[in-house]
Amino acid sequence: MSNLFTRRLALVASDTHRGLLNQGRRGIERETLRVDMSGKLAIDPHPRALGSALTNAQITTDYSESLLEFITPAEHDVATALEELDRIHRFANAKLDHELLWSQSMPCTLPDEEDIPIAWYGTSHIGRIKYVYRRGLALRYGKAMQCIAGLHYNYSLSEDLWRVLKNDEKSTADDKTYQSESYIALIRNFQRYSWLLMYLFGASPALSTHFLRGREHELETLSDDTLYLPYATSLRMSDLGYQNNAQAGLMPPYNDLESYMRSLSRAVRQAYPAYEAIGTRRDGEWIQLNTNLLQIENEYYATIRPKRVINSGERPVEALCARGVQYIEVRCMDIDPFEPLGISLETSRFLDAFLLFCALDDSPLTNAVTNKRNQENFALVVKEGRRPGLMLQGDDGAIDLQTWGLQLLEKIQATATLLDAQGNEQQHSNALAIQKGKLLNSALTPSARVLAALQTTDKSFEKFGLQQSMQHAEYFRQRPLSADENTYFENLAKESIAQQEEMERTQTGDFDDFVLAYSQRTPRQLCD
């Protein structure tokens, strides 16, 4: 362990500061496709009973009308967030008419591209800009890729805890800067070690043959409707999932917040010939927000992002520049098809210990060489993570995955023990022990369990997905909400519809002018 990690652990473990660990927040965003009872994509509009996708804070859509996104409030204990996620699922499940929530990250059987519905958010300027952005994604990457579902884990530490660390290190930075740069340091460590999450929690080793739509691939055939890689952990996170050739060279630096923001801001203003050839309008209608490498900063797909809650109409980089990093968003987690919520409490407890380790451990600056090495380790594990004797590249050269993983778990044990001291009994340490079991026996990983389960469904990914979706629907159906809980979500839905209608009724100005103004909101200091 580094001296910095040991000192920080001791500082946070002291009676004076230990309680600050309970003041951080956790939130979960779970995506899931709506499918019909035969496992095909439901292409009807977003159910009105779920409210407005534009203004409902807990139930919205992502890329498609068919891709629901459930969002929990940020809570001090992730167990509370999971309870809230469970209630959202139970409400949505009860409101779906002859439809199911798809249990997998990789999509169900999809219709032709033109029949996959893009999410619609109404006629307000904000609603239209969200729609046009998604039209641009369809043109740039195809609609099928945008139907992949993931789970985002939002994580923050208490601002008071960051101040304690800052004072101990006698930093002369202001609180906002110290906190922001500390989150960036967390991200650097995350990128070094996130291959471990792919091994432990990757759950998409197979996909439907229909998904690739003629694209070249190196997958093996499991059955007529299913392709796979025998040692893969997460095809979702491979170049078969969220791939983007245009972004291939766009790895923003994570050595400080300003260079990160500057890199994305440049990409939003950098012309890209293939997108210029498409243009921004067709038959008088907007088809993408601009013809640059990125339409907006969020188009860059990252496994983790520094985040700040934004105001309506505000750009993400604008919020970061003005108010600094507030939390980080982990974006590489697959949906766990064996869990009705897509994630378990046990997994969440491990993530908390893992992210606290990333936050407290020494985090050397990166360069092009180390960035490339991190990317190659990650890419290798998502496609071959369970291959016996798989070698990765560590700081001191080649090291086998199992050895490195066990070394990391030894370090993470310190933060798990620290978190358990807050009153959660041994939940973090128990979660860690389960992950150790996966490193010692790859058959226990979700990806291996998926492949084993496929053997019981005629080796069919689509049948397996439908089977799990039906089981999860029954799980929620057997546990209906209380009258008060149901009323809460129904009121949330009604109020969100009313809010959207009010926005549209009071809308002023021209949409073209709104798009222009939005595109010019990059902070001046990032435009050099």
UniProtKB/TrEMBL annotation:
Q: What UniProt keywords apply to this chain's record, in alphabetical order?
A: ATP-binding, Glutathione biosynthesis, Ligase, Nucleotide-binding
Question: Which InterPro entries does the entry mention?
Answer: Gln_synth/guanido_kin_cat_dom, Glu_cys_ligase, Glut_cys_ligase
Task: Name all Glutamate--cysteine ligase domain ranges.
Answer: 11-380
Which SUPFAM superfamilies does UniProt cross-reference here?
A: Glutamine synthetase/guanido kinase
Top-rank taxon = Bacteria
**According to its UniProt record, which reaction does this protein catalyse?**
L-cysteine + L-glutamate + ATP = gamma-L-glutamyl-L-cysteine + ADP + phosphate + H(+)
Instruction: Name the GO cellular-component terms.
Output: cytosol
Q: Which named protein is this?
A: Glutamate--cysteine ligase
| Species this protein is from | Herminiimonas fonticola
